[in-house]
Structures are given as C-alpha cells and as structure tokens.
C-alpha cells in the first residue's frame, strides 16, 4: 500500500515483519513551515516599520544633498546657468577669498553669543517649570505660552521688532522720555545686537524644551539627599541638576547652532544689510543665479555645522536622552 513501509520487530518468539506508516506527517510539517514564516516576518518587522521613514529621509534629505554636491562641481556662465563638468573652481573661490573667512567668523561669533544667551535663559526657565511649578497642568500651560510666538510666521515675528527698535520706535521714545539718552540710539536696529536679539527670541524655546525634558526625569530623592547634606540651592543646581541636564543642553544646542548658522531671514530683516552671515551670502548667490558657487558654499557650511555638532556629541552622550 502506498505510504506503508516494512519494519522489523524482534520478539522473544521470533522476528516479525510489520508494516508501518511511512507517510510524512503533513500537519506537523505545516506547523513548522508556518513557524518559519512567522520567524521571518518577526525578523523583518523592524525593517518594514523603518521603511516609510527611511524612504522619506532618502527622498527629501539624501537625494537633495547629493544633488547639491553634484552641482557644486559644475561650471557656470552668465547666460548658461549650469554647465555639467567637474571643476574645483567653486571651492577654490570659497577658500581663496578673504571675505569668506570674515563672514564665517562673524557668523560663528553671532552663533556663539546666541547659544550662550539661550543656554542661560533656557536652563533657568526650564528649572522654574520643572521644580517650582508643581502642577503638571500649569507646566503644560506655561510651555504653551512660551510657544505662542511660533504660531505666527518667522518673518512677521522679525518685522515686529522694527517698530520697537527703530530710530522712532518705542524703545528709543522711552529712552528719550526718561532722559536716559539725549538722542535716538542707532545701534538698536540693523546691527549685530538686533540680529542676536531676534535669534534669542526665535530659538530660546528650542533650548527650553529639551532641558525641561531632562530635568523632569531627575530623581527627586537625589535633590533631597543633597539638601539633607547641607547643600544650598546653588550647590544643588551646580552639582546635581546641571550635570544631569547636560543631555538636554546638548540637544538644544544642536538645534540652536544648526538653525543660527544657516539662517538668512533674520539677518536680512533685522540686519538691514549691515550684518554678514553665511546664509545671507548663499542667498545672495542664488538671487544672482550663481548656483554652483552657492552649492559649494552650502557644502562647506554643512561640513562646518556637522563638525561643530560632532564636537558637541563627543563632549556629551545624547543617546541617553534618546
């Protein structure tokens, strides 16, 4: 019979030839096959979950970066915007002009001052929200209040400073009325001061949120132990809270550095052409349809920002926060 095979069975009375069922156990095999499929799907699940975001990153981040890199090696002429070629002339122009180094120096200086102010403001505001405001509801409400400026366009927020800081603005009128000064202060607008003020206004919230997120995770028993040991408020803040908030400070610093280094809108509106920045320089090149030099400048800026962020990440391990 099909599916039956011989088997020898030895007994005390002799040897018997038996027929046993040699057909494969289909049900068992089907279960093993199903388990193998499930294991394969389980192993592939993380990759399938990451696929949509990976596709977005490749399409809207990696591909544009590659295009900018390619264009940065093109040549150009006045009546022919892009000439497909491989030339290092665009990078030579970037590194051979003294104005490039001065522009980068000014940009880094403004970025450093902005970063320092936002770190101080962000730390103390986050400290107040995390340790002085006990109610979670009020913490949420106050964070929303801090985010109100983000409900409007960045251009509108920058233009709103002009009637405040201008020659006939409210600040100058207040200074003249109170006789603190005898003439309008020109440096309040279209100066590095106004640009830094605009940056602080824009990006302090991006420093507050990650620092606040780090502070609310601090074990309150550590603070109580420090207080019981006789530490003052400043000592607790310096020896307990500040070290445990370093990851939040690092994340906020990445946001501030990246956005300030590449910004040109704030410089254009509040700088009035009196303050140089790398972002403004790139925007000017694009306005003159000089795409290859602008692409080369953009790549140099990208490398500079990545280097700054890499140094920051070497100092602080932000993976603890993530």
CATH superfamily of the largest domain: MetI-like
Give the CA-based shape: flat
**Radius of gyration in whole Å, from Cα?**
32 Å
Query: Termini separation (Å)?
Result: 66 Å
CATH second-level architecture of the largest domain: Orthogonal Bundle
Q: Structural class of the helices, strands and pairings? A: mainly alpha
> Which range best describes the helical content: under 10%, 10-25%, 25-40%, 40-55%, 55-70% or over 70%?
55-70%
- Biggest sheet: strand arrangement: 1-2
Topology overview:
Layout (H helix, E strand, L loop, with lengths): L3 E8 L2 E8 L4 H47 L16 H8 L1 H35 L3 H11 L7 H6 L2 H4 L4 H8 L14 H24 L4 H9 L4 H12 L1 H17 L2 H7 L6 H10 L3 H25 L7
Helix pairs in contact: 1-14, 2-14, 3-8, 3-11, 8-11, 8-12, 9-10, 11-14, 13-14
Tell me about this structure.
The protein is mainly α and 322 residues long. The protein has two domains: 4-57, no CATH class; 96-320, MetI-like fold (Orthogonal Bundle). It contains 14 helices and two strands. The protein has helices at residues 26-72, 89-96, 98-132, 136-146, 154-159, 162-165, 170-177, 192-215, 220-228, 233-244, 246-262, 265-271, 278-287, 291-315, and strands spanning 4-11, 14-21. A two-stranded antiparallel ribbon has the order 1-2. A hairpin with a 2-residue loop joins strand 1 (4-11) and strand 2 (14-21). It is flat and about 95 Å long. The N and C termini lie far apart (66 Å). 22% of the residues are buried. Mean pLDDT is 84; it is low at 14-22.
